[in-house]
Amino acid sequence: KCSSKTIATLLERREACGPSVREILTAENEKIDNTGTFHWPTEDLLTSNIMRRWFTHQSGAAESLRALNPLSMLEIGAGCGLAAFAITNSDPSGAVRVVATDGNSRVVEALKRDVDRSSGEDDRNKRVVPMRLQWQSLDERAAAFDALRSFEGSSAASDPPTSCPIGNLPPNRRKVLFGADCLFFEDYHTALADLVIAFHKEFQVKNVNDVAQPITLLMAPSRGESFERFEALIQRKIEQSGLGIRCRREEALS
Questions:
Q1: Which of 1, 83, 141, 179 has the CB geometry, 3.0–4.6 Å to 47, for a possible disulfide?
Q2: How far is Cα 241 from Cα 39, in angstroms, rounded to an integer?
């Protein structure tokens, strides 16, 4: 259930006209597409699956939020920020933080406005940190990883609700990278695969069981088998990395 103070700027598709001059210039100057200025159904599905996986405590799932420790989450291709805002507003402990990134600076500007307008006295949306991240940029990647690290020590609220199943959690946070519908443009596949590998290298925890290890969750339709081609690429990258990451495909629950 989202806060009544939550405000979202939905940049919707215009049927009667083409892209604005600003959108064209942004896409040209930043060498990025404008798909993030629209809302896509896969974002809804990803949000729903994340909520089931980590926030539906009655589900009896083996990976409960208590077992996972507080989450520091990095969203790629955040767009209008539906997943980031839904996650932070649905966490009763106040422990979850999301770095919501997009490669399009116009999208990031809208996300920042939403955080500023929605927060007020309710700090739940302040748990969302918008940033630009173009996957091939090593500097922007490092900045996003630093933002995740900055959450260390921010754990659950000091006096969580009695219904909250989390209780007092250790300060170490499990890192989660997630994104919806990021696989259609295959020119970006290598940069995305390299980002995923770098994320796991950066946050892999030695001598700790799987409960504390970082996770990547990407959701996308096949779309001309672009999903399958990325899957083959990331499998090769994983094997070359020697990280011992397990990669598996799951059917998304609608």
A1: 83
A2: 34
pTM of the model: 0.77
| CA distance linking residue 74 with residue 84, whole number of Å | 9
- Of the pLDDT bands very low, low, confident and very high (cuts 50, 70, 90), residue 59 is very low
Cβ(185)–Cβ(229) below 8 Å? no
pLDDT value of residue 213:
83
Question: Which residue, 55, 12, 46, is CA-closest to 179?
Answer: 46
Coil, strand or helix at 164: coil
Structure tokens at 243: 């990280």
What CA–CA distances, in Å, run from 73 to 22, 43, 144? 30, 15, 10
pLDDT tens for 183-202 read 888 999 999 999 999 999 99
At 65, which amino acid appears? L
For residue 220, the tally of other CB atoms under 10 A from its CB is: 20
Tokens of 36: 């993030």
Neighbours of 29 (CB within 10 A): 9
